[in-house]
Amino acid sequence: MWRPCQRRCVHSSVRLMKKLGGKTPAEQRWVLRQLRDPYVKASHAENFRCRSAFKLLEMDDKFRLLQPGHSVVDCGAAPGAWSQVAVQRVNSAGTDPELPSGTVVGIDLLNIPPLDGAHFLSSHDVTDPSTHAKLLELLPNGRAHVILSDMAPNASGFREMDHERLITMCLSLLDLAEKVLQPGGALVCKYWDGILARTLHERLSRVFGGVRTLKPNASRKDSAERYFFAKMYRKRIK
Ligand SMILES: C[S@@+](CC[C@H](N)C(=O)[O-])C[C@H]1O[C@@H](n2cnc3c(N)ncnc32)[C@H](O)[C@@H]1O
């Protein structure tokens, strides 16, 4: 006679076999990791578009960088989980009429499904000056309080090359900051750790009052992913 817990166990094993069927070993490892990941489960429960929402929530809980009424640029925004967090925190959907209402503009090379409270520039390259011009039109007074970047290139599998490409993308955010970030503003950018991280830190330190490295709990321990949190922006003096 089967006990209920044994029956449940057999059912979930059958479901698991179905999910893994026909997949390569690498794909099977990915499915298993997703199924076991508490942040994936929590993102489904809380209706976030992906688990990365928890990285931003954690950083924002600690540093309070997103305030009601703020204008935020979300670089590499697809599928839109960071924008969901930003919309909540800056009140850009006007959910709380007592609080000032902010602005969220998300940019990505890919399509970003619509989200109440956010403007999206889908199929746009953050590093392209023509994107900057469109962004200026969407931001109130052409100014942002915060630039967020969770951008990442498609990984080639060559660690050094991927690291260098992402650092180059992060450095391009300094041009964007010069155009839209207001004095005193903040920047959060993802990078993959490696030899050029110090160069990026040094370049950020030239124009921000403080720069620190963050590794949120939601960021997988085995990944080289890190974030720089730079605050107190001062414009470059030419
Ligand atoms: C890790 S995903 C971002 C996830 C997002 N923060 C979220 O919470 O939904 C990285 C994104 O960066 C985007 N990306 C990479 N290079 C880009 C570029 N030059 N301009 C705009 N987006 C870019 C990719 O298309 C990808 O969607």
UniProtKB/TrEMBL annotation:
<comment type="function">
    <text>S-adenosyl-L-methionine-dependent 2'-O-ribose methyltransferase that catalyzes the formation of 2'-O-methyluridine at position 1369 (Um1369) in the 16S mitochondrial large subunit ribosomal RNA (mtLSU rRNA), a universally conserved modification in the peptidyl transferase domain of the mtLSU rRNA. This activity may require prior 2'-O-methylguanosine modification at position 1370 (Gm1370) by MRM3. Essential for late-stage assembly of mtLSU required for efficient translation of mitochondrial DNA encoded proteins; methyltransferase activity is not required for this function.</text>
</comment>
<keyword id="KW-0809">Transit peptide</keyword>
<keyword id="KW-0489">Methyltransferase</keyword>
<keyword id="KW-0496">Mitochondrion</keyword>
<dbReference type="Pfam" id="PF01728">
    <property type="entry name" value="FtsJ"/>
</dbReference>
<dbReference type="InterPro" id="IPR015507">
    <property type="entry name" value="rRNA-MeTfrase_E"/>
</dbReference>
<protein>
    <recommendedName>
        <fullName>rRNA methyltransferase 2, mitochondrial</fullName>
    </recommendedName>
</protein>
<feature type="domain" description="Ribosomal RNA methyltransferase FtsJ">
    <location>
        <begin position="48"/>
        <end position="231"/>
    </location>
</feature>
<keyword id="KW-0949">S-adenosyl-L-methionine</keyword>
<keyword id="KW-0698">rRNA processing</keyword>
<dbReference type="GO" id="GO:0005759">
    <property type="term" value="C:mitochondrial matrix"/>
</dbReference>
<dbReference type="InterPro" id="IPR050082">
    <property type="entry name" value="RNA_methyltr_RlmE"/>
</dbReference>
<keyword id="KW-0808">Transferase</keyword>
<feature type="active site" description="Proton acceptor">
    <location>
        <position position="190"/>
    </location>
</feature>
<dbReference type="InterPro" id="IPR029063">
    <property type="entry name" value="SAM-dependent_MTases_sf"/>
</dbReference>
<dbReference type="GO" id="GO:0008650">
    <property type="term" value="F:rRNA (uridine-2'-O-)-methyltransferase activity"/>
</dbReference>
<dbReference type="GO" id="GO:1902775">
    <property type="term" value="P:mitochondrial large ribosomal subunit assembly"/>
</dbReference>
<comment type="similarity">
    <text>Belongs to the class I-like SAM-binding methyltransferase superfamily. RNA methyltransferase RlmE family.</text>
</comment>
<dbReference type="InterPro" id="IPR002877">
    <property type="entry name" value="RNA_MeTrfase_FtsJ_dom"/>
</dbReference>
